[in-house]
């Protein structure tokens, strides 16, 4: 009895932070609720699963300095950012790269389009060289102020940083644009509950 009472008292004495959620699950993948990019602490804004028809393709999470629940709030926010994907199935590298570049072009903003061309080309080349994105592999794209967008595959930097912020904005619009990859996923990445029952192709 004494041990039980002591256990309860000790648990009540723990700081509030000890009870805070430290991970969020999406498609069987756990995303840390905080991370660090270029010395800046970032918060998990939202996470979800990208489906193609009925198949899970990857889980993705967005990290920002401060949470935002609108596309403009995410895209226009200053500071470091991170897009983190974890593959849930094997996908041909060229096919994945084409899906990303098509999504960027489809959602491009007219006055930024010219400044995205260089970055979209370099990004596509990275996936062409990758050959295959295997299930379980991680693909991150960090926005580092003053440096650019750095692609990181399984913890290793790949390629040179892409300097144009317009490229990174276009990348975010794959999931947050007017024609997003998946409407449900868009809501989840904005930290909201999904509203739609259908799946985007």
UniProtKB/TrEMBL annotation:
Source organism, top-level taxon: Bacteria
Pfam families: Chalcone_3
Residues in Chalcone isomerase domain copies: 25-191
GO molecular function: intramolecular lyase activity
InterPro entries named in the record: Chalcone_isomerase, Chalcone_isomerase_3-sand, Chalcone_isomerase_sf
Coiled coil, from the record: none
Annotated keywords: Isomerase, Signal
Signal peptide: 1-20
SUPFAM superfamilies reported for this sequence: Chalcone isomerase (SSF54626)
Protein name (Swiss-Prot/TrEMBL): Chalcone isomerase family protein
Species the sequence originates in: Inhella gelatinilytica
């Amino acid at each position: 009895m004494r041990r039980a009472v002591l256990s309860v008292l000790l648990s009540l004495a723990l700081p509030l932070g000890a009870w805070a959620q430290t991970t969020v699950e999406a498609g069987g993948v756990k995303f840390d609720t905080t991370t660090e990019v270029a010395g800046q602490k970032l918060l998990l804004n939202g996470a979800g699963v990208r489906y193609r028809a009925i198949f899970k393709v990857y889980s993705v999470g967005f990290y920002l300095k401060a949470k935002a629940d609108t596309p403009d709030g995410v895209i226009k926010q200053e500071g470091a950012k991170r897009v983190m994907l974890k593959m849930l199935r094997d996908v041909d590298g060229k096919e994945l790269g084409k899906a990303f570049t098509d999504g960027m072009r489809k959602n491009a903003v007219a006055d930024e389009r010219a400044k995205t061309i260089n970055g979209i080309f370099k990004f596509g080349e990275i996936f062409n060289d990758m050959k295959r994105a295997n299930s379980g592999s991680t693909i991150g794209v960090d926005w580092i102020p003053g440096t650019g967008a750095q692609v990181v595959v399984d913890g290793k930097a790949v390629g040179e940083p892409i300097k144009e912020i317009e490229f990174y904005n276009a990348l975010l619009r794959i999931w947050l644009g007017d024609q997003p990859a998946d409407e449900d996923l868009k809501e989840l990445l904005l930290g909201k509950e999904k509203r739609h029952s259908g799946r985007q192709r």
